[in-house]
Amino acid sequence: MRSEDFPTTTRQRDSSYRHLGFAIFIISSDTFFWKPIGNLIGFSLSHDYASHIILIVPLSAVLIWQRRDQIFSNTRSAPLAAAALFVIGTLSGWLADRSMLASSGDDRLSLVTLSIVIIWFSGFMFWYGPSAFARASFPLLFLLLLVPIPDLVTEKVIFLLQAGSAAVAYGLLRLFAIPVFKQGFILRLPTLDIEVAKQCSGIRSSLALLITVLILGHFALRSAWRKTFLVVSIVPILILKNGVRIVAVALLSIHVNRGFLHGWLHTSGGIVFYLLGLVILIPIVAALRRSESGDFVGVDSRTGGAGI
């Protein structure tokens, strides 16, 4: 073996050592928290608005694997920062166990899950250090989507989606010159009354669209404010696509068959309107990318760079 090969071999050995140490840390922590992790999986399978949870860890792992060369190009242990994160995670778990900040079992699960994620962060910080943590910040922070939304926040979000969807549906029906009277969340048509219930809020497809937009923004955009704008822009899109869903079900029930009130489009048609939301987002993403390209070209022209 040539002498210049020794540094490469040493780096590879060090990298393997760190990966093995982190893997043992994750397996050990998962073994310790096996019961709350099992509860989290059960929660995801039994709540429509939490069905995304079982996908978060695999997606995060894929995102890290995709940029593994950049993320792990400069690693070093950071025991002090790791210890601070570990203490914060442990304290969160203790508070959840003592029920000091949780008003229900679901809220307690949220705190415990947050505790687990922060402890995972501490392990990553210990084995790979702050530089690697910064480069992996998106897939690591993406893990926070494992935390179930607290009951109070869920209720507020569902109410917002209900109110917005009812208002949009009412406006669309008026735009189509269809006689309609709105009474709270109830839309009264000549031959049909429709209630925009909690089940009609579209929160499941809304969360799916949010996750898609987060990943899309991560890959398609560079600047933080454009990524933020893209995420914020989905709020009116969520309300619009759900209002369209309500109007579609109402018109099909009136003019085609009343079975649409309880059919697939009403109960499981979220995927269709999720795709509608994506279609609406395409020109927004395209416009943001064009404006971003213009910014970078402008910077390059001022600095004598080549541009992109």
Provide a concise account of the structure shown.
This protein is mainly α and 308 residues long. The protein folds into 2 domains: 5-148, no CATH class; 153-303, no CATH class.
Folded structure, characterized:
The chain is mainly α. It has two domains: 5-148, no CATH class; 153-303, no CATH class. 74% of the residues lie in helices and 4% in strands. The chain is built from twelve helices and three strands, in the order H-H-H-H-H-H-H-H-E-E-E-H-H-H-H. It has helices at 5-32, 34-46, 53-66, 68-71, 79-98, 105-135, 137-142, 151-175, 203-220, 224-255, 264-267, 270-303; strands at 181-183, 186-189, 192-195. The two termini are 42 Å apart.
Strand content: under 5%
Number of domains: 2
Mean pLDDT over the full residue set: 83
Stretches where pLDDT is under 50 for at least 5 consecutive residues are 1-6, 296-308
The share of residues in helices is over 70%
Number of distinct beta strands: 3
Strand order of the largest sheet: 1-2-3
Please provide the ordered H/E string of secondary-structure elements: HHHHHHHHEEEHHHH
Largest sheet: 3 strands, antiparallel
Number of helices: 12
Indicate the topology.
Blueprint: H1 5-32, H2 34-46, H3 53-66, H4 68-71, H5 79-98, H6 105-135, H7 137-142, H8 151-175, E1 181-183, E2 186-189, E3 192-195, H9 203-220, H10 224-255, H11 264-267, H12 270-303
Antiparallel strand pairs: 1-2, 2-3
Helix pairs in contact: 1-6, 2-6, 5-6, 8-10, 9-10, 9-12, 10-12
